[in-house]
Amino acid sequence: MDGDQNTGGFRGYRDTAQVDMPMAPPVHGRASGGRPGADPVPAPRTVLDPSPAPQDHRTTPDQPRTVERHLDEILAAMPEPEPIELAVLDAQGLLCAEEVVSQRALPAFDQAALDGYAARYDDVAAATVEAPVQLGVVGESVAGATSPSSIGPGLALKVAAGAMMPAGADVVVPAVWTDQGPVRVAVQAAPPAGSYLRRTGDDVAPGDPAVGVGTPIGPAQISLLAAVGRERVLVRPRPRIAVLCAGGELVDVGTVPAPGQIVDVNSYALAAAARDAGAEAYRSGILPADKRRLTEVLESQLLRSDLVLIAGTFASGGSDMVTDALAELGQMRFRQVTMHPGPVQGFGRLGRDQIPVICVPGEPVAALVSFEVFVRPAIRLMLGKRQLFRRTVQAIAGQQLESPLGYRQYLHGTVMRHPDGGYVVEPVGDGTDAQLARMARANCLIVIDEDVTEVAAGGLVTVMPLLLGG
């Protein structure tokens, strides 16, 4: 269950590896920084801080920061979009932003809950198969009939599910408990008084709350809103996310790349990920190489967006055209984060309205991992969701796993249920497959903590299933 409720904003520390089942002790390996065949540990590099200096955007290097600290900064800066009114069908998947009070009774009249015979309980209480009770049938009531009717002692009215109950009746005898006679009916068993009928206001009475603030609007809520006469409802809107990519080597998907060029996949992947998280994402594509046009594009996206997401290889310890343009629009910082892949992350609030801008690495695997860790929780916070992070489970490692010391490692893997219970996980591929192909086959991220360099086969690891819409 998603547990989506309105929390009223971010409140302090957020853990990116929350576990929804008992946590077993972690399996610690040797704490060494290097080993044969392992990925090299990313070395700390000078980071860009363009905020204070008008002439030179470089500052002394920041200390590498933890995943939690970088995430805290992002979540604390997320705006809360103003509620908007939408048609009830357009509100599906969003959180209600008002207390909807019913002005109607549901049901609006006493009605039969199933096909049968409306009768007086006193008349049928003694009915048995051996000694059925005979009642005279005075007519029939079907759904949609508006003429009220009534019955007296010894009489019954044939009714359809949803039909108006006759005055005087206090029970509906199911048709299968009778001989279904059209003129006289033999009742062979009696339900308790009040059975198989719905009284006026049993579901919702006038003045009762129908849908509360923070309620996720799904098919059942839409049904109730329609029943109480609401065509439109106030909701927390989908945040508007602009997705851009930076890099002189990038070409659009319809272009055949020349040697040294790369097809822009990040703007497609990140826009899709943002939509899956619940945002209204706009794929703006590759940033222009011309400085004036670049600044114009950034400014226009800041005016139309609640959050701007940029993927690219950004300057570290120096400046380039994109970081310079971002620095001119506000305080933008690029930092080393103790995670792998994608240790260089950027965040700032730019433009007149201080719109949050998140920069993630340009390498596609690192870009999507960064999205899961930082951007998806931010989107869900703006949506008002209570559960910001994907639920995690503990799984048995199917093979030995290695991780760089001091960095939280995120590995794509496949997780499956073990026949004896619990979960088993293995990393995807053997290292010879293309990274995008491996990522496309994965259904989870394996999360290895900063102080663990080795997990033996059979050890327990934290796994984050990557379920669409989950």
Automatic annotation (TrEMBL):
Cofactor: Mg(2+)
Segments of skewed composition (Basic and acidic residues): 55-65
EC class: transferase
Region of interest: Disordered: 1-65
Domain of life: Bacteria
SUPFAM superfamilies: MoeA C-terminal domain-like, MoeA N-terminal region -like, Molybdenum cofactor biosynthesis proteins
Ranges where the MoaB/Mog domain occurs: 242-381
UniProt catalytic activity: adenylyl-molybdopterin + molybdate = Mo-molybdopterin + AMP + H(+)
Keywords, comma-separated and alphabetical: Magnesium, Metal-binding, Molybdenum, Molybdenum cofactor biosynthesis, Transferase
Family annotation (Pfam families): MoCF_biosynth, MoeA_C, MoeA_N
Pathway: Cofactor biosynthesis; molybdopterin biosynthesis
InterPro entries (UniProt xref): MoaB/Mog-like_dom_sf, MoaB/Mog_dom, MoeA-like, MoeA_C_domain_IV, MoeA_C_domain_IV_sf, MoeA_linker/N, MoeA_linker/N_sf
Entry annotated with the keyword Metal-binding: yes
EC number from the UniProt entry: 2.10.1.1
Keyword Nucleotidyltransferase: no
Protein family membership: Belongs to the MoeA family.
PANTHER family on file: GEPHYRIN, MOLYBDOPTERIN BIOSYNTHESIS PROTEIN
Function: Catalyzes the insertion of molybdate into adenylated molybdopterin with the concomitant release of AMP.
Annotated protein name in UniProt: Molybdopterin molybdenumtransferase
